[in-house]
Each structure stands twice: as structure tokens, then as C-alpha cells.
Amino acid sequence: FSQPSCVFQMDTTQESYLDLFPLDTIVYLTPDSENVLEDIDPNKVYVLGGLVDESIHKKLTLQRAQEQSLQTARLPIREYMVKTTNTKNYYSETLAINQVFEVLSTYYETQSWPAALKAGVSSGKGYVVPDTVK
Predict the structure, then answer these.
(1) In the chain, where are the structural domains located?
(2) In whole angstroms, what is the distance from residue 24 CA to residue 45 CA?
(3) What digits encode the pLDDT tens for the residues 13-23?
(4) Catalytic entry in 11, 19, 53, 131
């Protein structure tokens, strides 16, 4: 059993992230962004967009970020993962907030997108890191 090497502190507030941080430091993560997140900048604030039902509200997080004039980025799933053969023919780059957090925290520790994506993207999404393709 190993202990995680980093500890995360979480604060909650009623205030909006728009009031707490300068707009030019905020990066809204959305699977619909054309910008690929290549590295984590410790001087940036990353907003994890979350929805209850992704099938009804396509591109809602991207639209919200654009309305707020925020930078956007998406995880590099297409760049480091491949579609796997599955019976449902289902492929999704939309992850739950805990999965996105797992990807980001693993990347921050390892500096490896393949390791981070392997840790956070479940096989049910239809993508795998190439070295795990059978």
C-alpha cells in the first residue's frame, strides 16, 4: 500500500471563480475545446466543467467558457489514446469530474500524459493507451 505523494487542499466558497481569479489565468477544461492541454501551468487556474447529463447539453461547457471570455482546453485524449474495438461502438471524450481530476493529478506527479490518461480514463469510454491494446 503506498501513500499518495501529494496532498490537495480544497476550499469551498459561494464566490464565483470569475470574481476570485484574473480572467487571463483561468482555463476552462471542456472536451469540446479545439485547444489541447499540453502541460499544467502552476500560474493558471483550471476549471473542471461538469454536467449531470452530457447527452442533452452538448457543447454547454464550451459555450459557457466562451460567454465568459475564458481560455479553453481539452485533455489530450486523441493525441495519446486510440479507439479500441468494443461491442457498443461507443467513444466519448467526456469524463466525470473525478476522472478529470485523476488525470490532472497523475499528470502533475508523473509528467506523463499516457500514464495520466491510463489512470483516469476508464475503458468504458472506448479509448485506451496504445501499449494496452490487445
Answers:
(1) 17-128
(2) 9
(3) 899 999 999 99
(4) 53
The pLDDT of residue 3: 47
- Active-site residue 41, yes or no? no
Number of residues that this document lists for the chain: 134
User: What is the domain class of 17-128 according to CATH?
Assistant: alpha beta
103 alpha-carbon distance from chain centroid = 7
Q: What is the pLDDT of residues 21-79, one digit of tens each?
A: 999 999 999 999 999 999 999 999 999 876 555 555 678 889 999 999 999 999 999 99
Closest Cα partner for 37 from 97, 91, 80, 98? 80
Tell how far CA 119 is from the center of its chain: 12
What is the DSSP track for 50-105? Answer: --S-TTTSTTHHHHHHHHTT-EEEB--HHHH-EE---TT--------HHHHHHHHH
